[in-house]
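for the recovery benchmark. tokens below, seq after
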């Protein structure tokens, strides 16, 4: 009876509310509508300037403000995340500034040294000065002086209220100064967190403009009766949601919002599995014919299903639904989305059905959209290569999922409870667990000694 009761109990309470992601999504959609209808808005309000849709790259950057601001306001005013013990802040402390000044100076030294190291990394990485990354470098270069200036009042203010202001950034600063005791574990924690923000932050900014422009400029009247073109635009729009909210997540790692990085993945395997999926390490998943390319001489679903109108519409709906799950899995995080990090435990939204909805939906989308097992040149070799390469990519994502679980299982008892609850109750996770159990060979029964 106790087992049955456990199986029907609700999962642990999520650290992220459902509403915070929804208000961010609403702000994003509002700005997209403004950009699409800017000529009419400018005429109605007699605003001087060009009468064209705002689809430029900096309009895509501005989207983050309209996405992030509602999430911040909801988090503070409604969810009151700044009062949670997990922030490490006690707002009743109100220490005098002089009491924490030495700590703050050390911390600022560590923070500014980190900025310098990241800047050097960007300068040395050739890939950051080519193609889509050029825009990211332009944005980061413009933002750097502002971030540098704001870091001073932010650190001086926050240290007055932190229960333990000597955090991982302070330990890194203390190591550089060499005058106070510092913890190597804390320094590694600091390095992992900022490496994640630097690497993935630049990547996310670099891919903001493309999909945004496609959605803002889309002529839905012209493509409404074409399932392939309509699906392409809708999928692009859903990826805009993923990229915009994901970028806000990387840039909004602030402790007062309880969105700080509590720890970066400490396992080398986790880093290898994650970095293999992003440029410059592997470009296969980005559509280029490199190491893991799986679209050599393929034509995609629209080509192979042409002439079958009903099936085209069904397939288009399938791809849009899979992408919608992928976008949902991102905006459900609210302000806390980022790879390789522990920033609290998410147990609602699509994470109530499977622990890895983004990975599952993304891989199903790739299989269904590219159809790597069909090639235009009839080459059996290309068919096999494409299918094997996409199978390898799917296996890498399975590996990523397992390393992420190992990280979170070691960090939070709430995640351990969630992990257990999902295995017993979640529709998809439980189904995979049952299949996996049946596929594993049974251990031979031990015969009692005579």
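predicted aa per position
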């Amino acid at each position: 009876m106790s087992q049955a009761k456990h199986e029907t109990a609700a999962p642990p309470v999520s650290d992220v509310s459902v509403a915070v992601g929804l208000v961010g999504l609403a702000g994003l959609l509002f700005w997209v509508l403004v950009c699409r209808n800017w000529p009419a808005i400018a005429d109605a309000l007699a605003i001087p300037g060009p009468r064209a849709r705002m689809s430029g790259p900096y309009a895509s950057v501005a989207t983050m403000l309209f996405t992030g601001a509602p999430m911040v306001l909801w988090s503070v005013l409604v969810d009151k995340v700044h009062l949670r013990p997990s922030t490490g802040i006690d707002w009743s402390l109100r220490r005098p500034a002089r009491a924490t000044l030495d700590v703050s100076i050390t911390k600022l030294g560590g923070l500014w040294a980190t900025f310098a190291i990241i800047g050097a990394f960007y300068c040395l990485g050739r890939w950051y000065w080519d193609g889509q990354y050029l825009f990211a470098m332009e944005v980061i270069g413009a933002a750097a002086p502002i971030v540098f200036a704001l870091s001073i009042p932010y650190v001086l203010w926050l240290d007055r209220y932190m229960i333990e202001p000597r955090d991982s950034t302070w330990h890194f600063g203390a190591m550089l100064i060499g005058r106070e005791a510092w913890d190597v574990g804390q320094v590694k924690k600091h390095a992992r967190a900022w490496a994640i923000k630097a690497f993935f932050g630049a990547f996310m900014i670099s891919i903001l403009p493309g999909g945004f422009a496609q959605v803002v400029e889309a002529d839905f009247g012209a493509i409404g009766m074409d399932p392939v073109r309509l699906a392409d635009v809708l999928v692009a729009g859903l990826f805009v949601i993923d990229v915009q909210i994901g970028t806000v997540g990387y840039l909004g790692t602030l402790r007062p919002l309880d969105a700080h990085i509590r720890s970066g993945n400490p396992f080398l395997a986790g880093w290898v599995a994650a970095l293999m999926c992003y440029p410059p390490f592997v470009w296969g998943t980005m559509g280029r014919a490199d190491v893991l390319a799986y679209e050599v001489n393929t034509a995609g679903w629209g080509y192979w299903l042409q002439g079958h109108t009903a099936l085209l519409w069904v397939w288009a709906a399938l791809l849009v639904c899979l992408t919608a799950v992928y976008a949902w899995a991102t905006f459900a995080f609210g302000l806390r989305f980022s790879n390789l990090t522990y920033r609290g435990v998410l147990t609602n939204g699509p994470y109530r059905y499977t622990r890895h909805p983004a990975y599952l939906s993304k891989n199903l989308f790739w299989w269904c959209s590219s159809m790597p097992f069909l090639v235009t040149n009839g080459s059996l070799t290309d068919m096999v290569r494409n299918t094997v390469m996409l199978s390898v990519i799917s296996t890498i994502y399975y590996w990523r999922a397992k390393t992420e679980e190992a990280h979170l299982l070691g960090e939070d008892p709430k995640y351990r409870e969630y992990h257990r609850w999902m295995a017993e109750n979640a529709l998809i996770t439980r189904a995979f667990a049952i299949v996996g159990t049946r596929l594993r060979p049974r251990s031979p029964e031990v015969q009692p000694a005579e």
